[in-house]
Design a protein that fits this description.
Helix content is 4%, strand content 48%. It is mainly β. Among the domains are: 139 residues, no CATH class; 88 residues, Beta Barrel (Thrombin, subunit H). Strands 17, 18, 19, 20 and 21 form a 5-stranded antiparallel sheet that branches. Strands 22-23-26-28-27 form a 5-stranded antiparallel sheet, with no helix packed on it. Strand 2 and strand 3 form a beta hairpin. 47% of the residues are buried.
């Protein structure tokens, strides 16, 4: 979605809110139209890049060892992808078909599964036994058994825009944009067991609309903590030239929730960071989270940013020294923290316009961001806090790293030139080009 379209959608949200109607999301969740999978259970596990192309109703599979290119026919307007934990399956949301296509990674066999209207987000459970699909227009979530393709439809309420599984693979959290709530589905019962109303945490001058949800990384103290990203209407403040909004809710699961779902969360913290985060990424240690913000008004115009949010075991963290490197703003206004706050925004990275998709490299805290409206990608090194911007072809929409972490595959929101390749060490770029019925990389 381009910048003008996003501002028009934001204006529609404000007008809808004033009219008492249910608003539409300003932006879809972070784009996942590219995914690299490695199929486990083999001596030399193959690695494939899958890319969806909504313009021609196709998913492309590229063998990263042989560069073999295959075209897979799927449903109408395929968009976000989800990969199973073992890499054996890739599911794609077909937005105009009210369904998903489940692709076997090795054989490329396809099974089309009906869901609800406008499937916008999909996730596999950590144990690989469930696939959850958020159906925005149907106000439902479809649970799929990926081994049998049996389905269950669960009504959750207005505007389910994002889904996430807990580490136990037992509960699906659903961000319900139009209900200002998070619905919790027990997959064994195939029903909503709790709905947590987040409106009670809204400031008096602000409306918080949940548009993305995630759990903390497995094996960390935050495994049972839910993180909700809000689109914020009203109440934003400017500090040191940057915009602050109540944009992230940190929701620790009650310890007895799995025994008694009626227990409501306590110690919920609302973190003030950049506005309208569309998705989250964690560093490998599970100690810091990146939130991808949209539409931030500054003294020099509208920019888009990435917030680094960290946890501290102290109630009043010492602010970091001002960052001297280009593209980073150190944040030191701790007056925005509540006395018991343990989560805070440490710094903010300035990236290109409309960060539509992002990916984390394997084995290191190195992040690529697709800047759709500025035709570039931003490379963020969280170890040394550096930001590098590299120009690419038109409308980069999603990114994925090669298994080595050196190369970034960039998906473009164009019908004829779907993928480019960037060498993060040299900055060199190649385009996947079709010539004489064959695809090849050209520089």
């Amino acid at each position: 979605m381009g910048r003008l379209a996003r501002w028009a959608a934001l204006a529609a949200c404000v007008l809808a809110a004033l009219a008492g109607c249910a608003p539409a999301p300003m932006a879809a969740p972070m784009a996942h139209t590219a995914v690299v999978v490695q199929v486990s259970g083999q001596n030399s596990p193959p690695a494939y890049l899958f890319v969806s192309n909504r313009f021609v109703n196709r998913v492309y599979r590229i063998d990263l060892a042989t560069q073999d290119f295959h075209t897979i026919v799927v449903g109408a307007k395929p968009h976000n992808l989800a990969a199973s934990p073992d890499g054996s399956q890739v599911a794609v949301c077909n937005e105009d078909d009210a369904g998903v296509s489940v692709i076997q990674s090795t054989t490329m066999l396809v099974r089309n599964v009906a869901t609800g209207a406008y499937p916008i987000d999909a996730r596999y459970s950590p144990d690989g036994k469930w696939l959850a699909v958020a159906n925005y227009d149907a106000q439902s979530v479809t649970l799929i058994d990926p081994s049998t393709y049996e389905t269950w439809s669960v009504w959750v309420g207005g505007g389910p825009s994002s889904v996430a599984f807990d580490a136990r693979s037992q509960t699906v959290a659903v961000a319900c944009f139009n209900e200002n709530s998070v619905a919790l589905i027990d997959v064994t019962q195939q029903e909503v067991v709790a709905t947590w109303d987040l409106s009670q945490y809204e400031p008096s001058d602000e409306s918080l609309l949940p548009q993305t949800v995630s759990f903390g990384p497995p094996g960390t103290p935050f495994t049972d903590t839910m993180f909700v990203g809000f689109q914020s209407i009203g109440g934003e403040q400017s500090q040191a030239g940057l915009t602050y909004a109540h944009s992230i809710a940190v929701v620790p699961f009650p310890s007895r929730f799995y025994d008694d779902p009626s227990i409501v969360p306590t110690d919920v913290q609302i973190v003030r960071a950049g506005p309208n985060p569309s998705g989250f990424l964690w560093n490998h240690e599970g100690t810091a989270m990146l939130a991808f913000n949209h539409g931030e008004a500054t003294d020099s115009g509208v920019v888009d940013t990435v917030s680094e949010v960290e946890w501290t075991d102290q109630n009043a963290p010492t602010p970091p020294p001002p960052a001297a490197k280009f593209g980073i703003a150190a944040l030191a206004d701790l007056n925005l923290l509540s006395p018991l706050a343990n989560w805070f925004e440490k710094r903010r990275f300035i990236v290109g316009q409309n960060p539509a998709g992002a990916a984390l490299a394997q084995g290191r805290d190195f992040v690529a961001v697709a800047n759709e409206d500025s035709h570039s990608i931003s490379l963020i090194d969280m170890a040394d806090n550096s930001v590098q911007m590299i120009g690419v072809a038109a409308s980069p929409y999603a990114v994925a790293f090669s298994p080595s972490g050196r190369y970034v595959f960039v998906v473009h929101e164009t019908p004829l030139m779907p993928v480019s390749l960037v060498d993060t060490q040299t900055g060199g770029a190649w385009i996947l080009y079709k010539s004489l019925s064959m695809y090849r990389w050209i520089q």
